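Tip: read the tokens left to right.
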């Protein structure tokens, strides 16, 4: 293995580790009590029925999907596959977190949260691939 290949492999491992670590942060944040809420509901703190925790779900799973895109890379099979894989991983993590929350007295399983997680995953996956494509176009000039 050449120095360049070893360096690339180390970078890939680091990107995978970053995505995994962020997933653990999301899981950890998802099992602690949320101040000002009862029974695990997100509460309605914002207009239009937007709950207190909704922005955290959206942003958290967008970041997770973006990190999965980054960890996986997109050159091997194309951008569409990278987005689909990243979104699938982030949605699976989000659904798993909701299942973990179900038996916790101060948290609860919520289909709404799972849907917001999925929306965030789509936004993050698409944004990450678009950003990578934009950088590639810039460096090609």
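Filled-in amino acids:
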């Amino acid at each position: 293995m050449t120095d360049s290949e070893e360096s690339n492999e180390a970078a890939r491992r680091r990107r995978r580790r970053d995505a995994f670590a962020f997933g653990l942060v999301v899981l950890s944040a998802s099992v602690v009590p949320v101040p000002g809420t009862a029974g695990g509901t997100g509460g309605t703190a914002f207009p239009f029925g937007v709950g207190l925790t909704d922005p955290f779900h959206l942003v958290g799973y967008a970041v997770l999907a973006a990190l999965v895109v980054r960890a996986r890379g997109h050159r091997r099979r194309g951008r569409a596959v990278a987005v689909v894989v990243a979104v699938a991983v982030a949605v699976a993590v989000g659904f798993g977190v909701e299942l973990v929350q179900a038996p916790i007295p101060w948290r609860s399983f919520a289909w709404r949260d799972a849907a917001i997680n999925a929306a965030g995953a789509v936004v993050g996956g698409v944004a990450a691939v678009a950003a990578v494509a934009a950088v590639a176009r810039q460096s090609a000039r």
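The mean pLDDT is 86. The radius of gyration is 17 Å.
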